[in-house]
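Input sequence (421 aa), recorded before submission:
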Amino acid sequence: MLFEQEATAIDGKVNTMSAQIEQAPSQLSSATGAAPTKKAGVSHGSRMLYIDNLRVLLISMVVVQHVAVTYGAVGSWYYHDPVTNLTTGIILTTWAGIGMASGMGFFFLIAGYFTPGSYDRKGTKSFLLDRLIKLGIPLLIYDLLLDPLVVYIASGLHGSYWSFYGNYLLHEKGIANGPVWFIAVLLLFTLVYAAWRVLSRYRTHTTDGAWKLPGYRAIFGFIFALGLVTFIVRIWWPAGWIFQLLNVPVGYLPQYISFFILGIIAYRSNWFFELTPKMGRDWSLIALIVTLIFACLVTIPLIQGTSSSQQTGLPIAGGFQWLAFCYALWESFIIVGVCIGLLVLFRQRLNHQGRLAKNLAANVYAVYLIHPLVLVGFAYAFHTVTLYPLLKFVISVIIVLPLCFLLSDLVRKIPLVNRIL
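Predicted structure, token format:
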């Protein structure tokens, strides 16, 4: 792909809704944070509202992407509407491909950004306990309660649910089912980070500002390195291939790992605030140009592959072939261009919040957890309606997206739940 955790006050003086962004999708939760000044590690108390707003956009993209897969885009999902066509498949696969290339990597970048500040304020024991509660409990709840219900609906509501549930538990081979693979991987990343801090006796002042903002040449070098590593990994594990135990797409791990690490470095070196408007414009344009070139190369293979609902069935997904390398390289350009472009845009234009935006941001994590149930339930009920599949997609987005936020707001009113979500 997938998230109130810590939107962090950098020196601990501004203790703002601790644990929001980090927690899961961005942890996907509702994050606010204190923006560092030009000198990293110093807080002037302003809240990073643009990160809140950015997470609302990202979680909305996740929901829309899963709606797209439901109605014809290539990809793995619980439920696929029985009626689709080639035109709809191509349009929605294009949208889903861009989302897959950039969405979850962006979440890992933001999660990494807010991890060091949380650890600095809480210390090892409190940090680990907080992560286990805010990531581990939602993971268990989803696996034991929500995922079997979603699977039951997607399979057609056949037979008694409790009979189905018992069979589900007996045959389930992995954890972190559905979109909560993000939470499991994020928990693993944060545990590794905590272990590294303990083993290295890491001190904040030793690296504050130590990494200069990369220039264009360094960014191009990172893009090509990430594309190459991703291509090599996908020779054996194509894009869309899932490691069953954690339900994680292995072909995207190089991106997720590298962007989590970049987030940590960006926090220490203040990169989010040093990105210039020119960099935002340039890298957005570069990503667009590369996308147009890539589209010219893969149009025919993409059309041929839309007969398969699985990403691994596409010729660009992996293996030792030039299309797979182009795909991996394109994804690297997209994630870098989207991250730089949106960070600059939201910091400059959308660093403010009204009541609605604040409420939406507070529900991001809960939306991530409940949206499969909402989407699959609606799509299953809606499948009896005969409409052009692209029109069904649009109608579903209009209904499902706001419904997810409304239900999430209700869920978070349950006692104790809002302390986790």
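Checked by second reader. The chain has 13 helices and four strands.
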